Amino acid sequence: MALKGIKVIEIAGLAPGPFCGMILSDFGADVIRVDKANAPPLDRQARGKRSIALNLKSPDGIAILHRLCSKADVLIEPFRPGVMEKLGLGPSTLLSQNPRLIYARLTGFGQSGPYSLMAGHDINYVALTGLLSLLGRHGSNPIPPQNLLADFAGGGLLCAMGIAMALFERERSNMGQIIDASMVEGAAYVGSWIFKSQDMPVWSGVRGKSWFDGGVHYYETYKTKDGKYMTVGALEPQFYQELVNQLANAGVENVPDQFPDDPEVAKNQMADIFLQKTRAEWQAIFDQTDACVTPVLDLGEAPLHQHNAFRGSFIRNAKGQCDPAPAPRLSRTPALDLGSIEEPSIGENTREVLTEIGYKTDEIKQLIQDKVVHQVNSSAKL
Fold first, then answer.
1. How far apart are CA 208 and CA 230, in angstroms?
2. Cα–Cα distances in Å, from 285 out to 221, 225, 245?
3. Closest of 216, 236, 224 to residue 295, by C-alpha
4. Most buried residue, 54, 155, 196, 283, by CB count within 10 Å?
5. CA-CA distance, 316 to 366, in Å (whole number)?
């Protein structure tokens, strides 16, 4: 595995931090999540990780985290700027103890600036990038893209990329460094092409009237006879011609030209066409063609689709549920075989982790009695 031997300390958080830790864990890193005792189990991205539950209001709990970081390669922390410093766990302190540590700080607004101490969520971060202004139908309010763009693409994923780059550089310098991962900046970076392509004809300057936002009939979603949906993405002329050909083979006449005088009339025509058949019927017509037409699947259908099933794009977890498989695929050093790996309970591996960093049995017992640490009454699942 590509990250085998890398030790990661992940301070428990929500969404982007756990995703970052899961990526590292999926590719072989030993990720230890630092939880609060008796905290609600909100992390759904903990596969392959271990959990130690600490009381960080206790000096002894802080001392344990110091020891963990002194032996770690990476620390991921999700707090607002200044919180770790108040705990005596800031980067200047931890890097003085472990100069090779990669200290990743994953926040919404970054470590500096007028908004750095404000609360926020994905919708707020994407709003500041300018990208939210482009998302939505013509005449509607801007529509947030779930919490994919800032939390996960610009946040957890780019933070993991930063960690990988810092680990690579460390092979030359033998030095760690601080990663300031701002979800605002990460989401904006993901949208670089949109910023840099505004002089291209794909953009109209009006939300919902451009090529990629439902403004044209050849890049749109359409309802089918059974209330499901198909997507059409026939941008290039040769692909649009294939769309026309396949519709003609299916007995459809009066297909609109690709570049009509009135795009709304063309969209209405295409909408009427797709209402004539069920999603399955349209899929049978367009599968294995270059018309760029595919079905809109829900979360339960996606793992069962023939293409995804063939490639094993989804995996069944220990609970029998389907999760997306790690991506991308590495030929020589693939990700973990995750099918039998369960997610840890909070504090499940406390004794195990404390033993690894040098605590003796009687010391661990005393730490549990003093409520400095918490160990659930179950054996490790890994």
1. 19
2. 17, 15, 11
3. 224
4. 155
5. 40
C-beta neighbour count of 248 within 10 angstroms: 11
Query: Among residues 106, 105, 142, which one has the least CA distance to residue 126?
Result: 142
* CA 7 – CA 167 distance, rounded (Å): 11
Q: DSSP label at 288? A: T
What is the average per-residue pLDDT within 102-129? 98
Summarised one tens digit per residue, pLDDT across range 75-95 is: 999 999 999 999 999 999 999
**pTM score:** 0.94
Contact indicator for 76, 10 with CB cutoff of 8 Å: yes
**What pLDDT score was predicted for residue 380?**
41
Task: State the DSSP code for 345.
Answer: P
Q: Residues 347, 51: contact at Cβ < 8 Å?
A: yes
What residues form DSSP beta bridges with 32? Answer: 9, 50
Other Cβ atoms closer than 10 A to 141: 10
Burial class of residue 346 (count of CB atoms within 10 Å of its CB; 0-12, 13-18, 19+): buried
pLDDT in tens, 313-358: 999 988 888 999 999 999 999 998 776 788 899 999 999 999 999 9
Report the C-alpha gap between 108 and 116 in whole angstroms: 8
- Using alpha carbons, select from 36, 13, 290 the residue that is nearest to residue 159: 13
The strand pairing partners of 231, in sequence order, are: 221, 294
- Two structure tokens written together for 71: 């032996």
The DSSP code for 156 is: I
pLDDT average, residue stretch 142-171: 97
Q: Report helix, strand or coil for 219.
A: strand
**Residue 116 pLDDT greater than 50, yes or no:** yes
- Strand-pairing partners, residue 154, are none
Of the candidates 169, 182, 178, 181, which has an alpha carbon nearest to the alpha carbon of residue 91? 178
> Closest by alpha carbon to 21, among 180, 217, 157?
157
Could you list the active site residues?
A: 121, 151
Q: How far is CA 164 from CA 2, 104, 110, 140, in A?
A: 10, 11, 19, 40
